[in-house]
């Protein structure tokens, strides 16, 4: 190894060859990651992640934790390229499992802004949540947003944007994606309303001055739509990627919009291919129904913004981290 050469962030043994799948690593770890995505030859660790010599499972988890992300490079609408879609979904599913684990088990000691997070190239460093840590409404809102940001900032197209565009993309997308993940959790639990992982309500109590129908709309509208569609995990993952590449977000430059449009087409093609394979003739209709969910997310986002403003004006205590400052 050359003197002073950076060491691979995955194996910590070999010299890096550059950024591969978004992470500074060696060629061996790059090839291992790609091979695992396409062959999927990993089993659970027999030592529950406490290997002295890392098994395939632990090595792959290090790739996921470091932020390695695969993006399809071929047209997924071609039947011969189904392996690209399968590899992409396999990667997204493991990144989503990491996000879920961090949401339920971790916390973050700090109060970062969106701009500060956007400037960081590395994943956010969470720590294990202490036993008995009090998770109130404010803490759940904070960790939900932070884990969503950590999931989103790993996508390849994020690192292709300049600092300003990256900031605006994360600023205007993480709240919607957080809402969407909350609704998918309700669907997986077969619940009719959105709650936090511990089952607590996203709105603490009835709010004087606001109709209960309005508050129940926030709790239930998006979850009901996701439930009605019987949305699969694969659809949720691909749809989140499509929504995240919205070139219409305010403040993004022309070059940034071009990058987002390119990647949105890639992810949209992947979603359409999934629908065609899964639902065959009904695939195009299913694809359209899934895209329409975005309007429900926007409506819920508007209602939550109104609720936050109303509570603030009326003098109710509103716990707000810098993450949510406009």
UniProtKB/TrEMBL annotation:
Protein name per UniProt: Nuclear receptor domain-containing protein
Organismal lineage: Eukaryota, Metazoa, Ecdysozoa, Nematoda, Chromadorea
Domain NR LBD stretches: 109-326
UniProt entry keywords in alphabetical sequence: DNA-binding, Metal-binding, Nucleus, Receptor, Transcription, Transcription regulation, Zinc, Zinc-finger
Localization in the cell: Nucleus
Zinc-finger recorded as keyword: yes
Source organism per UniProt: Caenorhabditis elegans
Source domain of life: Eukaryota
Gene Ontology molecular-function annotations: DNA-binding transcription factor activity; sequence-specific DNA binding; zinc ion binding
Nuclear receptor domain ranges (all copies): 5-75
């Amino acid at each position: 190894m050359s003197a002073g050469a950076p060491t691979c962030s995955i194996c910590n043994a070999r010299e890096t060859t550059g950024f591969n799948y978004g992470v500074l690593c060696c060629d061996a770890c790059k090839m291992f990651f790609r091979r695992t995505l396409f062959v999927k030859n990993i089993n659970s660790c027999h030592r529950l992640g406490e290997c002295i010599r890392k098994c395939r499972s632990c090595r792959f988890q290090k790739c996921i934790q470091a932020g390695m992300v695969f993006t399809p490079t071929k047209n997924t609408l071609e039947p011969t390229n189904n392996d690209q879609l399968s590899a992409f979904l396999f990667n997204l599913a493991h990144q989503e499992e990491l996000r879920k684990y961090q949401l339920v088990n971790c916390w973050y000691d700090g109060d970062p802004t969106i701009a500060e997070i956007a400037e960081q190239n590395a994943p956010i460093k969470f720590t294990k949540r202490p036993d008995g840590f009090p998770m109130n409404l404010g803490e759940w809102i904070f960790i939900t947003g932070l884990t969503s940001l950590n999931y989103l900032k790993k996508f390849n197209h994020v690192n292709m944007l300049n600092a300003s565009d990256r900031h605006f993309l994360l600023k205007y997308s993480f709240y919607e994606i957080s809402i969407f993940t909350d609704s998918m959790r309700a669907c997986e639990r077969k619940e009719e309303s959105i709650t936090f992982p511990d089952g607590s309500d996203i709105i603490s109590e009835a709010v004087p001055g606001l109709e209960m129908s309005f508050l129940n709309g926030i709790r239930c509208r998006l979850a009901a739509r996701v439930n009605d569609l019987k949305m699969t995990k694969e659809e949720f993952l691909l749809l989140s990627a499509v929504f995240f590449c919205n070139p219409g977000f305010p403040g993004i430059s022309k070059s940034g919009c071009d990058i987002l449009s390119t990647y949105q087409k890639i992810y949209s093609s992947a979603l359409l291919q999934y629908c065609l394979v899964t639902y065959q003739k009904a695939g195009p209709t299913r694809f359209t129904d899934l895209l329409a969910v975005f309007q429900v997310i926007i409506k819920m986002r508007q209602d939550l913004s109104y609720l936050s403003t109303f509570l603030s004006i009326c003098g109710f205590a509103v716990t707000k981290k810098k993450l949510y400052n406009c």
